[in-house]
Design goal:
The protein is an alpha+beta fold. It is built from 6 helices and 31 strands. Strands 3-4-5-6 form a 4-stranded antiparallel β-sheet. A 4-stranded antiparallel β-sheet has the order 8-9-10-11, with no helix packed on it. A 4-stranded antiparallel β-sheet has the order 13-14-15-16, with no helix packed on it.
C-alpha cells in the first residue's frame, strides 16, 4: 500500500523553494541553528502536520518538476514518504531505496534497498528500515551507510514510519510476510545499539511514532485502536489505553496524531475497512495519563490521519478528520491480474495443471492437436476460476463491493477540545471502481518492468496545514486539494483548488 504521498513537497514547495536565503548552515553541525523544514513524515515534533510557511494559492501553477526513479522510471517503484532538510533537499524512500533530490529535482545520491516506510532526519542522518528487517542510518550528505542493525527477519507488508528524536530511533519490528508487526524497538541514534523492545497487545499495521517535544515520551497506536505511551529512553509503558480485543479483531491502517497535549487515535468497527459503510470513530486521549476526553463517530472508515491546527479568523483549534475508504482495484483489474498470474505459477504447480489437463484431453479429445488444446485450455480455465473466486471472495470484500462506484468521502471538522462537530467538506465524487492509475500501475509494471505491482493506499495521503490555515490533502482520485476556509461552521459548499 502506497501510504505517504509527498503532500509537503507539492503543497508547500512553492513557498519553501521560492528563493529563501541560500546562506544557511547544515542542521546537525556544531553551532548550527538551522532546522529541517519537514524532518519526519508528519512534519516537526511539537507541530505535527502544521507548517510555519505559506503554501501556494493555486496548486495548478505550483508544480515545478516531476521526478521518476531511475533507471526504469515511471511504474517501476512505489514511494512511501518525503522529508525535507534545511537546504530544501528532499529525501524520498520507496521500494527502490532512498533517494536524495535537490530543490530542482536533481538526483544527488541513491542508496539501493527495498524500503516500505517513511524516513526521518536527525543531526545529519537519514533513518530508514527495509523489508528484510534492517534499520539503516545513512549520511544525509553522501548517502553512505553509517551503521545498520538487523531488527528481525522481515518487515514486509504495509508502510510504516521510522521516527527519530532526542537521540533515539524508533521502529516497528518482528513482522510477518502477510503484513503486520508485533513489536516496537528503540535504538541509540549514534551507535545503533538496541535500547529497548516493547511487544504490543494487538497487531501493528501502519506504525507511526509521535514524540513529545521534551524528548521524554513516544506514543503510537495498533490496528484495533489501542494507544500506547512509552518512556522514550527505557521503553517502559507509562500508560496503555483505547480499544482492546483480539490481536486482529478490527483493522485500521490510518495514523494517530499528537497535538496540544492530546493524542487523537483512529478506529474502525470492522475487520475489513475497505467496505464503504464501515463505521468508525476518532478518540481523544489526554497525554499525561491516557484518559479519554471525547469520541466522535462516523458513518464511514477513518483510514487516514487527522490534522490538528488553529483554523479560521478566531484561531479555533480544530481537528480535520479525512473520512472514506480505499477503493481497491475493482473486480475487473483483480480478475485480469489473477488470471495472468497463471504464467508465474511455480513450475510444479503449472506442470500439475497441464498433466491433469492432458489426462482430460486424452480422455475427451481425439487427435494430438485436440488433446494438446484441451490440456492448455484446462490450465487457463483453472486460472479463470481462481481469479474469479479470489476477486469476489478473498481480495475484494464480496461481489457487491468489488464493482462499487459509490465511495462517500468527507473532511469532518471537529472542535479539538470537545469533539463537537463543526462542519463537513464533501470531497468531489470519483465514480470509478478503482483508485486513479491503479490499472495503469498493474499493466505497465508488468509490460515495462516484468513484474506485477499493485498498490492500495489509504484514500488520503497525510495532509498538511500551512501558516494561513489552508489545508492541503491528497485524495485517491489523484488530485491534491487546498481548502482555505475549513473552519467555517456548517461547511457544505467550499470549492477546492486542485
Amino acid at each position: 500500500m502506497l501510504k505517504h504521498v509527498a503532500i509537503v513537497s507539492i503543497a508547500l514547495q512553492a513557498r519553501v523553494l521560492s528563493g529563501l536565503n541560500e546562506d544557511v548552515c547544515v542542521a546537525g553541525e556544531g553551532g548550527c541553528a538551522a532546522e529541517y523544514y519537514w524532518p519526519q513524515t508528519s512534519g516537526k515534533v511539537g507541530s505535527y502536520g502544521v507548517a510555519s510557511y505559506l503554501g501556494p494559492g493555486n496548486l495548478s501553477l505550483a508544480k515545478r518538476w516531476t521526478w521518476y526513479p531511475p533507471p526504469k522510471g515511471r511504474y517501476s517503484e512505489e514511494q512511501f514518504g518525503v522529508v525535507i532538510d534545511d537546504r530544501m533537499n528532499l529525501y524520498v524512500t520507496g521500494t527502490g531505496g532512498a533517494y536524495k533530490l535537490d530543490r530542482n529535482g536533481k538526483l544527488l545520491w541513491h542508496y539501493p534497498a527495498h524500503c516500505r516506510c517513511g524516513a526521518s532526519l536527525m543531526e545529519g542522518i537519514l533513518y530508514v528500515n527495509t523489508i528484510d528487517g534492517r534499520l539503516l542510518a545513512l549520511s544525509m550528505d553522501t548517502g553512505v551507510e553509517i551503521w545498520k542493525r538487523q531488527l528481525c527477519s522481515t518487515l514486509f507488508g504495509d508502510s510504516d514510519v521510522v521516527g527519530a528524536h532526542a537521540g533515539v530511533v524508533v521502529s516497528s519490528s518482528h513482522g510477518k510476510e502477510s503484513g503486520g508487526k508485533s513489536t516496537v524497538v528503540g535504538l541509540n541514534s549514534t551507535t545503533g545499539s538496541r535500547l529497548w523492545e516493547f511487544k504490543t497487545d494487538a497487531q501493528i499495521w501502519c506504525f507511526l511514532p509521535l514524540f513529545t517535544e521534551d524528548g521524554s515520551k513516544v506514543v503510537f497506536q495498533d490496528q484495533i485502536g489501542g494507544v500506547y505511551c512509552l518512556d522514550l529512553h527505557s521503553g517502559e509503558a507509562i500508560w496503555k489505553t483505547g480499544y482492546k480485543g483480539g490481536y486482529e479483531s478490527t483493522w485500521n491502517d490510518g495514523h494517530p496524531i499528537l497535538a496540544n497535549g492530546v493524542v487523537y487515535a483512529v478506529h474502525n468497527q470492522d475487520p475489513i475497512p475497505t467496505l464503504a459503510h464501515t463505521r468508525s470513530d476518532l478518540r481523544a486521549y489526554r497525554l499525561s495519563d491516557g484518559e479519554m476526553l471525547w469520541q466522535a463517530d462516523f458513518e464511514h472508515p477513518s483510514n487516514s490521519q487527522p490534522l490538528v491546527a488553529p483554523l479560521g479568523r478566531d484561531g479555533r483549534l480544530s481537528v480535520v478528520m479525512p473520512i472514506g475508504t480505499q477503493m481497491g482495484h475493482g473486480g475487473h483489474w483483480w480478475m485480469i491480474k489473477t488470471f495472468l498470474m497463471v504464467f508465474t505459477y511455480p513450475g510444479r504447480l503449472k506442470l500439475a495443471f497441464l498433466l491433469v489437463g492432458l489426462c482430460l484431453g486424452v480422455y475427451l479429445g481425439r487427435g494430438l492437436l485436440k488433446k494438446t488444446l484441451l490440456a492448455v485450455m484446462f490450465l487457463f480455465i483453472c486460472a479463470l476460476v481462481e481469479s474469479t473466486v479470489v476477486t469476489l471472495f478473498v481480495i475484494e470484500p464480496g461481489p457487491v463491493e468489488a464493482w462499487n462506484t459509490d465511495w462517500p468521502a468527507f473532511l469532518e471538522v471537529l472542535d479539538a477540545e470537545t469533539g463537537k462537530h463543526l462542519g463537513r467538506w464533501r470531497v468531489p465524487p470519483w465514480e470509478h471502481h478503482t483508485q486513479r492509475a491503479a490499472g495503469e500501475l498493474l499493466w505497465y509494471s508488468a509490460l515495462l518492468h516484468g513484474s506485477f505491482r499493485y498498490s492500495i493506499p489509504t484514500p488520503y495521503g497525510s495532509g498538511a496545514v500551512d501558516a494561513a490555515g489552508t489545508v492541503y490533502i491528497l485524495y485517491q482520485d489523484g488530485n491534491v486539494y487546498s481548502i482555505s476556509n475549513l473552519s467555517k461552521d456548517g461547511i457544505t459548499d467550499i470549492e477546492p483548488r486542485s
